[in-house]
Amino acid sequence: MPTPGSKIPSTIPDSSHLPRILCLHGGGVNAAIFKAQSRSLIRHLQHSFRLVWVDGPFFCDPHTDIIQVYGSYAPFRRWLRWLPEHAEIDAETCIDEIGYAIRTAIEDDDRDGGQGEWVGLMGFSQGAKLSASLLLEQQARESKAVREGKTEWDTGPIGIPGLNWRFGVLLAGRAPLSNLNPSLLGSHALVSAAGLSEGFQFVEEIDDAAILRQPTLHVHGMADAGLHLHRRLYKEYCEQGSAMLVEWEGAHRIPIKSDTVERVVGAIYEIAEHNEVEVTWTVDRRPSWTFATP
């Protein structure tokens, strides 16, 4: 039964025409696990968005947190290196593999009937880091086009013309961001796509090129061991006024309890509407939802 604040319609709509969100899993899991873990969010979001779940390009061992429940969901995947035992790869190849995985998922969904505009990225953990990094890379290409007086910008690593991500939903996303376009982004505040983000030596001041101005929603679990890095992403790598924040009393996982889910879902609707994406509200609006200052 829906909770008192829930207004979930009884009929699931045909998603073919709905605006699309690309969903990027964390490290050591895969798209199927991320989808299963997000079931409480999906109950709401499927009435406003077509959610497309993407597998990362690189195989790896399962994350220790998911073995007990999802140990049979192999193969497990990652987007980026974070452990020394992960095979070394040059930055250009890593970026190309990430772009190919995402481009393939987009083209597959087009063939499966998806017609809506691609409007957002939603990622958990490493997938959140990648989502924010993709937004920063798009921002750099857009800035370059403005400087050159062009009305359209280059396609970037995904290689599909016309993609314009309007917002990102970052569930437990850690700093630093990854550099997905070294020819445009030379900031030392970014980690190379070939590098290990664990143990990254943060610079004293984040330069403007590494600051994300695209709209983002950050969801932080107060019991998450990586909370200090989530806060660095929110406070240091995002421009004031561009980011929203939802905090909840949980660890490194995706919320499933009704009250927290409804807060997160409501904030997603808020950021979508703020960026001219029409949604069907399945929760009551809460006046406390605003674009927070990092």
From TrEMBL:
Domain of life of the organism encoding this protein: Eukaryota
Domain Serine hydrolase, chain residue ranges per copy: 18-263
Keywords annotated in UniProt: Hydrolase
Family, similarity comment: Belongs to the LovG family.
One cellular component (GO) term of this entry: cytoplasm
Name of the protein this chain belongs to: Serine hydrolase domain-containing protein
UniProt entry tagged with the keyword Isomerase: no
GO MF annotation list: hydrolase activity
Coiled coil: none
Organism phylogeny: Eukaryota, Fungi, Dikarya, Ascomycota, Pezizomycotina
Any one Gene Ontology BP term: secondary metabolite biosynthetic process
Keyword Hydrolase: yes
